Amino acid sequence: MIDALLFDKDGTLFDFRKSWGAWAGGFLSGLAQDADHGARLAAAVGYLPDTNDFLPDSPVIAATAADIAAALQPHLGAVTLAELTQRINQAAATAAMAEAVPLVPLFTALRGRGLKLGVVTNDSERPAQAHIAAHGLTDLLDFVAGYDSGYGAKPGPGMLNAFVAQQGLQPGRVAMIGDSLHDLEAGRAAGMIRVAVLTGIATRDDLAPHADVVLADIGGLPAWLDGLKG
Question: pTM here?
Answer without folding.
Answer: 0.88
